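We emphasize that the prediction below concerns an isolated chain of 378 residues; any contacts that depend on oligomerization or on bound cofactors are therefore not represented. The input was used exactly as deposited, without trimming of termini.
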Amino acid sequence: MIRYFTKGIISLLFFVIVGSSPSFSNNHDTTKNPDTRADSNVAVNLPSLVDAVRFPDAVTLCGVRVPLEIQDVRERLEKEMLLALWDRAQVILWLKRSSKYFPHMEKIIREKNVPPDIKYMAVVESALRPHVRSHRGAVGFWQFLRSTGKRYGLRIDARIDERRNLFRSTKAACDFLTNLHDRFDSWLLAMAAYNMGGYSLSKKIDRQKTDDFFTLYLPAQTQQYIFKIIAAKLIMENPAKYGFAFEENDYYEPFSFDRVNITSSRQIPVTLVSEAAGIPFKQVKDMNPEIRGDYLSKGENTVLIPDGRAEGFKERFASLYGEWEKNNSGKVHMVKRGENLSLIAKKYQVSLSALLRMNNLSRRTVIHPGDRLIIQAP
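Result of the prediction step, given as a token string:
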């Protein structure tokens, strides 16, 4: 969809909200127990993999007991535990990222009244990385497909992809899972449906005459999915048991920020935000992974900046914007019937790439009669 702009003075409305940083209620805080702290022998005295699959008597997920007395169930869980523990570097990254993102996820999960174990789904889905894209086009922390993300209120277009936004995507995932739980009356089946689709799961239940996850014959990927989540939970709730003896400063710091809300009548370069906040362009993009490209779109935008940088932001931004506007006022072209981007660029003797850049468009953008484009003089 094309975005168009009109000449005029930008209107800016700022609301500064100091972002809170929920405390990390970390079940794997090894500093409180000196017996679990790292020592010089940890590299050569890793726990036995055989010990790793000697599970406690009560293994649960979302309050549901895992029936380890069923041989097939035990074998599948052992497999996923061993595979996870084989990739120790990946588990270390899970644990480090968890302190950065789990506090915010946990807060949303509590507010949405879904089981706290749901957060381990995001570990399995994306390893807690916002930019991950699957071969099917699923994106973000919770790996939403475009259609599903839009159904649950996520903005996904050429400028913003909220599947990468920690807060918006977590809320959408909780809403999606709640709807699946209402449908199947089981959090395990809701998670299975999240992976394979509700319609496909309903057919399996009807044909097999059972709604018990552990006795359903499901696609291999979905069977593995639930057991991967259980394995992630077991490891991350007790990392020292599995040879990950972290000290407090080994974890990444919780994600803390200030919010600045900007309402504008035209697109705004991200560089203005970074300069006003006194941080690199990259840091703005890293803190706001949902922003696509180098511009904020017109209308309302909420941008996260480092904690403490909101003070004086409004004044600095207004000054920077005024200077930028003087140098980038350009001309405005109203699109006429039969015109395309190449013809318009040729008419004004500017390169197509420059025209696209000035209007934050791509070569695939479809323009329509009446749309307005900024044309900078050659």
